[in-house]
Amino acid sequence: MNDIKEYIRSIPDFPEQGIIFRDVTSVLENAESLRASIDLMQDKIKDIDFDVIVGPESRGFIFGMPIAYNLGKPFALVRKKGKLPCETVSTEYALEYGSAVIEMHKTSIKPGQKVVIVDDLMATGGTIEAIVKLVKELGGEVVGAVFLIELAGLNGREKIKDIKTVESVICYEGK
User: Fold this and answer.
1) Is 132 part of any domain?
2) Annotated catalytic residue: which of 96, 137, 157, 167?
3) pLDDT, tens digit, 9 for 90 and up, residues 110-164
4) Residue 96 catalytic?
5) What's the average model confidence in pLDDT over 41-59?
6) Angle between helical axes of 59-71 and 31-44 (0-180°, round to 10)
């Protein structure tokens, strides 16, 4: 397997001028890079003691589900407001280009459960910070997070300093 970074497309000036969009769809479209990505992310959390994997839609589902399956752990969904059918908890948070509301079923996390968050990318850390808030509201504790890509120049780790283990497979130093 070549370096996963080789499979990530960098698209300049998307979604706006001056932004370099890191596109993971090219990773997903190649069986070898998809498998390697999941294996590498899973390896980053192998020494963490946890009960549940949480993933935000949609790419957190793509990477989190196979890791949960491989490790025999349950998977809890974080979705945009209005997409879950049962009673939920929700929170609003800032995005790079606006704001959003996410929610989880109230039954997704039980008090005392230890959680690992899995997602494709950490940029400013807003989504992950919001997920941590939801998990805490349900009585859980986020003990780890793993990302395929981290945009270190956007300082996302600053918002999630309380998470003991934060890992990324690929780190871009710029924005």
Assistant:
1) yes
2) 96
3) 999 999 999 999 998 999 999 999 999 999 999 999 999 999 999 999 999 999 9
4) yes
5) 97
6) 70
